[in-house]
Write a structure and sequence with these properties.
about 50% helix
Length: about 80
């Protein structure tokens, strides 16, 4: 999963579990505004620990996967 897809996935899982942003944010110890930013892919000020807490509250965990390529794609 690409970094910019994480927010959309969190939003989808939250809705599937019928949780409001207020509830998930409260469970995760963050503000609703911060959760909204995460769901929009604005992850600049959010730590990996916070993301881990959010996804844990949704019943998931962060997993690393080997990517099919390294670095930026070539223009070649």
């Amino acid at each position: 999963m690409k970094l910019h897809d994480i927010g959309q996935r969190i939003k989808k899982l939250r809705k599937e579990k019928r949780l409001t942003q207020d509830i998930l944010a409260s469970l995760s110890g963050i503000s609703r505004v911060t959760l909204g930013k995460v769901e929009r892919g604005e992850l600049g000020g959010v730590s990996v620990k916070t993301l881990d807490i959010i996804v844990s509250n949704l019943g998931y965990e962060i997993e690393l996967q080997q990517s099919s390529g390294y670095g930026l794609p070539t223009l070649g």
